[in-house]
Amino acid sequence: MTTKKKSEIALNQLGEKLVEQAKKGKNPEIIYPLRGLSNVTFDKKSRTLRMGNKTASRSFFNVAHAKKFLQTILVAVVSKELLKREKHTNLRDLYYQIKRTIPGTKIETVEEQTETDKAIEDLEVMTGFSREQLNISAGKNGSVAGKVIIEDRGDTIDWSKMGSGGWSVPSVVEDIKFKKVSANYILYMEKEAVWERLHEDKFWEKNKCVIISSKGQTTRGIRRLLQRLSEEHKIPIYVLTDFDPWGFYIYSVVKYGSIALAHASERLTIPDVRFLGITADDIEKYNLNKHFIKLKDTDINRIKQVSEYDWFKDNKEWQRQLKLMKQFGAKAEIQALSSKGISFISETYLPEKIKKKDFID
Amino acid sequence: MTKTKAEEMAALQQEISISEFFTKNRHLLGFDNPRKALLMAVKEGVDNSLDACQDAEILPEIYVEIKKIKEDRYSLVVEDNGPGIVKEQIPRIFGKLLYGSKFHRLRQSMGQQGIGISAAALYGQLTTGKNFHVISKIGKNRPAYYYELHIDTKLNEPKIVTEKEVPYMKDQGTRLEFEMEAKYQKGKQSADEYLKEIALSNPHAKITFKDPEGTVITFPRAVNTLPKEAKEIKPHPYGIELGMLISMLHSTTAKSLSTFLQQDFSRVSASIAQQICDKAEINMHSRPNTIVRNQAEKLYEAIQQTKIMSPPTNCLVPIGAEALEKGMRKEIDAEFYATVSRPPSVYRGNPFSIEVGIAYGGSIDPEGSVQVIRFANRVPLLYQQGAGAIQKAIIETAWKNYNISQSKGSLPQGPILIIVSMVSVWVPFTSEAKEAIASYDEIIKEMKLALQEAGRKLSTYIRKTVKAREQREKINLFEKYIPEVAEGLSMISSAKKTDIEGYLTKFLKKNIGELIKGLEDNDNKEKE
Lengths: 361, 528
Hints:
Chain A is of the alpha/beta class. Chain A has helices at 3-23, 66-85, 91-98, 113-127, 192-200, 203-206, 220-233, 245-256, 265-268, 280-285, 297-308, 310-313, 316-328, 344-355; strands at 29-33, 40-43, 48-51, 55-59, 89-90, 136-137, 141-146, 148-152, 155-158, 167-169, 177-181, 185-189, 209-213, 237-240, 274-277, 293-294, 330-331. Chain A has a six-stranded mixed beta sheet, sandwiched between helices.
């Protein structure tokens, strides 16, 4: 049986169960694993974030739940329809498909897209199938360049011939076939601007690597793409982020998984990735402290949170980095490297770091 | 011998009569413009009638009529069932300013200075040249007298134009009628508004009003008992000013200073009188009329330094919380009423008492600031709302504590009407037009205490009803969600939409009580 068929059945089972409860004169209720830090554990053995045993329940006849209950059902209906017709939709579209005014009220089924985004994540944990398996995707995001040739829906795509913008990573990369991969490593960075610099300098050509960027948080599509390249082609992956707690967390998401998507960890984590920079030591070595940005209260709080996550807590090196950040009272962006010269990052910083294997695990 | 300059001037100098003074300064008494003049005339007439009925212990029945004569010219009729006025007094009461029985007494009454009705009469005469008409009858078997009067403004004396016996249907009462330059308008600060408010503060009165278009409005009686009689009290030493003290020293019948203090003031015993005299270093046996000015000053200071018991407060007759609420229920369409009657207190030796009424919801305008109705000795104050103690006390009360919105330094907002009433033997007004109460600390404090208590009562009501309404709305929401959820579930299951709708509706009906209880528990949790 195909995955599509299975996820369709799961949606039906959910529907039948709820109707059965109502028929018996019970309050229709869905019990599902609780999402959030309180129900996430760090599995030291597999080095991934795992969902715990805590559950949450959502029932219709509860003032606090009624609307969310309705939203979840509406998302399930759209998903079932998509699976049946073998079509896909993205999160933005899903929001518009569901949004309308409830007759006889001034109430909208959904106010903002974050509500449908949450509803689909709930449906994932309720059914055990991922968003992609329910035929709902996020839009494409990020850019890729490198000496790689792939096949996507019958089209052959050469990542080295995509012009100035590179290839955009779709939300679902499951069906992509790698035809030819010639890269010594993959460099993943959170900043689009840095990717553009490296692309213009033909960094990937000179250093025989793949460069990938996202805008901020790493999307599921990029995470799965990185994972497949890592697992299927055994290529090392290095992560380049800002020197701040948010950047460190981006790295940890790629490596161990995220709190929000702990239920999808198995498909998305890459325990072998390494953190390249920017580190506190880089700042001292390359005199980047001229480009320090003073820490705000939110940064300081985030440093505390991140340093207390299980997957950072027992790691001496990361604790040292976070401690130094606090001592500096400052953070720094990747772009600080540009002060050393426009191509300092591509000609000096990256080659030096990679050659010396100057990483953090 | 030629006259000196001073002698020449003396020939020109003459006493300015009070009537003449009024002619030139009528705005001081509130007759600034034709619209306000009409309101003032109605007010003086009705206040007089209510006071007269109160004195005679009669439940008042008052008839007011405004007739249009021509553009900007109206005739006012005020008729009551009061005790009437003895024949000899009629010309003086209506035709001489500052004549009356109220100015020389310390007693709670509506008119406080006796300038009222004759001033209105004079205004009418000055603006129209027409005379003033009075009919009064003092008893069942007594004749009714009719007078047509003219005020001699130079001499402040009434001139009788006509005097005769007339047939009069009622057993007793007074009817007056006069023309004046006026403007009749409805709305704020109108005669209509004044009568409505006076009906609120005098729920024992029945008032009938016929407006220029012939429409008759009746304000029925809400309570059938008269307010108890207001007792006259002697002034308290703390409330007296130096000038008043000097004039009292000269007019007293007492033979010694000690007797004077005991006999002409309240709360002064022989020992207190002695303490005062000792402090002032004046022999307590001195004859009062021999006390010279600097001695009077010492006496005044000695009074301030002596501890004297507060004045008696049984002289006050507040509206009463119950009567006020009855009045409100009859005149104001609202969903909630609360009234508070504070125990008497004292400012500068004058006893006073504050009452507050609050009405909420119903047809009260929900937009903008609350409506405020102010009473001083049961008389509505229609002008200068922003100026007095009442406005200050309302603004300084923290209404947010009572679930009512309020911006800093402003009146609170919402569908609320606030009544603040002060009764006192002497209401301190900010000006002679008697439009706003002066902001003494003691008065503001009492007003705030009353407002807070009323605010608490309102807050309890708002919390209860608003909560109940919100709960109903939340439960109603389930009904709206049911078809949506049923349709959705029918698409991801084998069941029919109508069946699912049936199951869910049945559940809702059966468990509505528990759902409401769940809501209450939720609210309580939020509060904790």
